[in-house]
Specification:
The structure is a homodimer. By secondary structure, the first copy, chain A, is an alpha+beta fold. Chain A contains four helices and three strands; from the N terminus they run αβααββα. Chain A has one domain: Arc Repressor Mutant, subunit A, CATH 1.10.10.10. Chain A has a three-stranded antiparallel β-sheet. The radius of gyration of chain A is 16 Å and the shape is globular. Chain A starts with 9 loop residues before the first helix and ends in a 6-residue tail after the last helix. The interface between A and B is medium-sized, with 35 and 35 residues. The first copy, chain A, binds a DNA duplex (30 and 30 nucleotides) through α2, α3 and β3.
DNA sequence: TTGTTCATATAGATTTCCTATGGATAGACG
DNA sequence: CGTCTATCCATAGGAAATCTATATGAACAA
């Protein structure tokens, strides 16, 4: 099992995070870590490629700006297509989770 | 999101399945699919490499035998190390799930 | 001026999974 | 008897996602 993330869930987490409002990359990572009480770690080498994928698919848009700390940042915004994709990801994830839960149910001892 | 499995969970599912008793590969796949009500699909191209990994790590042992359908089968048995590994995988998985759940909590509208 | 935090990004390696393929045998069905 | 389907094992090759490591640079604190 992965130490930082459950593989395959990063894009869903990013889209969900952007549902609360536009954020730049670094802030997205921080948000996921904080909201998860540091149960999840988002490595930069995972995040930025994921954002590239989301951009390429049209699920987010981005524009350059300046952060509250006066640094050059690229701010991401979820698109309507991104919202639809998020819904698909969530229902797929829930489906798989349901399956896993059933398999992982405790074994009844004889 | 993956259509068949949540990436990174297959070994945990296999070890858990073997907790109920030794099974051969094909039967492991069938068991996971049936117990999950077909929410999970286990492709042979995923399963057999996973079993090789489990063998290599010493988490299962295997021996050749004959199935109830009179076919030559390789039956897998979870080892004590495998049980310990399963516990680690489960707690890691639960930790990640908890983090995901927190991030995926509905956004409160203003 | 030195170090730390913030911030973006890519290259490369690793891992895992899926698709496709290649066997082989048992048993059903015609 | 021949063919088809289901059972069973396994690997090769490719695709995708993640992590490690690295590079770059600005802002700010000490």
């Amino acid at each position: 099992m992965n130490k930082d993330l459950l593989p395959g869930t990063l894009e869903m987490l990013v889209l969900q995070t952007l549902l609360r409002g536009p954020l730049h990359g670094y802030a997205i990572a921080q948000s996921i870590e904080q909201v998860s009480d540091d149960l999840l770690q988002v490595e930069e080498g995972s995040l930025y490629p994921a954002l590239q994928r989301l951009l390429r698919e049209g699920w987010v848009t981005a524009e350059w700006g300046v952060s509250a700390r006066n640094r050059k940042v690229r701010t991401y915004l979820i698109t309507p297509e991104g919202r639809a994709q998020l819904e698909r990801e969530v229902s797929s994830f829930e489906r798989l989770m349901k399956g896993i839960t059933q398999v992982m149910k405790p074994v009844e001892e004889a």
